[in-house]
């Protein structure tokens, strides 16, 4: 397993504007995540887990601090550049699957690859490979309302992996 640092957060501060005051949530957080590492974030409700995930996933900007992805300083990127970077390098799986109901499992999985304009034959092959890995190859042509809860989650995971992200956020 590679040992190189993939994500490095340095002295991250994040507070929310609440009425006339500031509500500090992340107060000088340092974190390193290595390539190939599985990290789970635990803490009491309201402790700031979602806030941290949003900052690490570049869905929200901290008030200050540094966020490195390998040798790239993410917080110095503009919004458009950071969106492209996020789409290419990061995958997201949410508690609710957010699959499109009018598309089959297979079509849902290939969608991010198609939006990215990747070679269609390669995306299709990757999708079938993921369906197989997830043990739902025979469910490729099922619509979301024809899948079990766990199958829906597996399709959502496959969709998040179709572009081969460097990091997968699950929440
Ligand atoms: N947009 C916002 N404006 C003001 N306060 C916020 C905002 N978003 C979150 N908070 C507050 O920040 C704190 C941290 O929220 P966060 O969602 O990160 O918690 P969490 O650790 O994910 O909690 P849970 O386990 O309940 O999901 C909470 O007390 C919440 O009320
Ligand atoms: Mg939360």
Blueprint of the fold:
Blueprint: E1 5-18, E2 21-34, H1 49-56, E3 64-69, E4 72-73, H2 79-89, E5 90-93, H3 105-115, H4 120-133, H5 149-161, E6 167-170
Parallel strand pairs: 5-6
Antiparallel strand pairs: 1-2, 1-3, 3-4
Magnesium ion is lined by residues 49-50.
Please identify, by name, the CATH architecture of the largest domain. 3-Layer(aba) Sandwich
Low-confidence stretches: none
Oligomeric category: single chain
Indicate the radius of gyration in whole angstroms: 18 Å
CATH class of the largest domain: Alpha Beta
The CATH homologous superfamily of the largest domain is named P-loop containing nucleotide triphosphate hydrolases
Count the domains.
Answer: 2
Bound molecules: adenosine-5'-triphosphate, magnesium ion
Helix content: 25-40%
Task: Average the pLDDT over all residues and give the rounded result.
Answer: 95
The CATH topology of the largest domain is given as: Rossmann fold
Q: How large is the share of residues in beta strands?
A: 25-35%
Record field, number of beta strands: 6
Q: In order across it, which strands form the biggest sheet?
A: 2-1-3-4
Distance between the termini: 24 Å
Total helical elements: 5
What report would you give on this structure?
The chain is an alpha+beta fold. It folds into two domains: 5-76, P-loop containing nucleotide triphosphate hydrolases (Rossmann fold), CATH 3.40.50.300; 105-170, no CATH class. The chain is 33% helix and 26% strand. The protein contains five helices and six strands; from the N terminus they run E-E-H-E-E-H-E-H-H-H-E. The protein has helices spanning 49-56, 79-89, 105-115, 120-133, 149-161, and strands at 5-18, 21-34, 64-69, 72-73, 90-93, 167-170. The strands form two sheets. Strands 2-1-3-4 form a four-stranded antiparallel beta sheet, with helices on one face. Strand 1 (5-18) and strand 2 (21-34) form a beta hairpin. Helix 3 (105-115) crosses helix 4 (120-133). It starts with a strand and ends with a strand. The mean pLDDT is 95. Bound molecules: adenosine-5'-triphosphate and magnesium ion. Residues 49-50 line the site of magnesium ion.
């Amino acid at each position: 397993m590679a040992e190189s640092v993939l994500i490095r957060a340095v002295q991250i501060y994040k507070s929310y504007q609440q009425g006339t005051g500031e509500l500090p949530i992340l107060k000088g957080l340092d974190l390193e995540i290595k390539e190939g590492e599985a990290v789970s974030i635990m803490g009491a409700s309201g402790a700031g887990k979602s806030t941290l995930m949003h900052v690490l996933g570049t869905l929200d900007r901290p008030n200050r601090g540094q966020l490195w992805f390998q040798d790239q300083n993410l917080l110095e990127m503009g919004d458009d550049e950071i969106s492209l970077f996020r789409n290419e390098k990061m995958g997201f799986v949410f508690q609710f699957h957010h699959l499109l109901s009018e598309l089959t499992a297979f079509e849902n999985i290939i969608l991010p690859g198609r939006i990215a304009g990747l070679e269609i034959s390669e995306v299709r092959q990757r999708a079938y490979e993921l369906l197989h890995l997830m043990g739902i190859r025979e469910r490729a042509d099922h619509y979301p309302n024809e899948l079990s809860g766990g199958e829906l989650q597996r399709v959502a995971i496959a969709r998040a992996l179709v572009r081969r992200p460097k990091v997968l956020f699950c929440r």
